[in-house]
Amino acid sequence: MEWTIVGAGAIGCLWGASLQQAGFGVTLVLRDATRLQQFRRAGGIRLTREGNESLHRVKATLAGDCGPIERLLLCTKAFDTEAALRAVLPRLTPNARVLVLQNGLGNQQLAGELVGPWRLAIGSTTDGAWLRAPFEVVHAGRGQTRIGASDADSSDLVAELPDDFSLEVCSDPDIETTLWRKLAVNCAINPLTAIHACRNGDLVRIARYREELIRLCDEFELVARARGTQLFDRPLAEQAQNVAAATGDNFSSMLQDIRHRRTTEIEQITGYLCREAERLGIAVPTHRAMLEQVRKLEATQHRRDS
Ligand code: KPL
Which residues form the Ketopantoate reductase N-terminal domain (predicted)? Predict the structure, then answer.
């Protein structure tokens, strides 16, 4: 079986190397000729895991040159979902399956509308990975990837992976709740770290930041309760502080995006929550303030560049 991966960031490279190691054919679809050259210089995906480094000679191509796709893994930033899928849509075979493994919410529904809900599987991961250089991924924290679907059976995709697959993967009968739990943690940690330019652990250490985090969590719980979504078996404020402490030395993905002057996923994280709160008539003033502040930060970075 051949897997095609769109989005060669940390998670895309981690999966590319792991699938290749498990004996699957793997092709990365890259953005442009410059990226393709970069990939050829790298010679493949370099994976560092538990101190061991390995080189994985996967293939790479541009969307226009891509062959038929049977299994597609989409790992782009959430805001790139539509453009990335449209570019490869004509290559999907009639029985193709599409696994979306991204942050945020809303993008999975969009993916389903584009590829057909019966083809779509949705993933959510707690694996920690970062890129040391293009196509050089460090698997920093072993987590779990849960895979489910709203309008299809995704257990066959999980069953295709060998028992000794190097990533922990399981079927999730309630992937929507899992996505909401991840959204909750991301809504609490990501914007705050981006605004204060701090490590995740500072949100627990610094009282003023901790108070903001607790306010964000309390507001989030109002929305979750109103839509009947069961979050964690402990208060969200406690769960979010645990995650912030456990990933204390990390810079969140949103802060990294701000620092590299990239567009952040704020619209698919806090933006999604604010839209849902508005639909339900619930006030979430702290999240709204976060949304505005991160939008301003992004605009300032982009203005500096132009
Ligand atoms: O998922 C994350 C992110 O940075 O996007 C957290 C959980 C905040 C860890 O850094």
Answer: 3-150
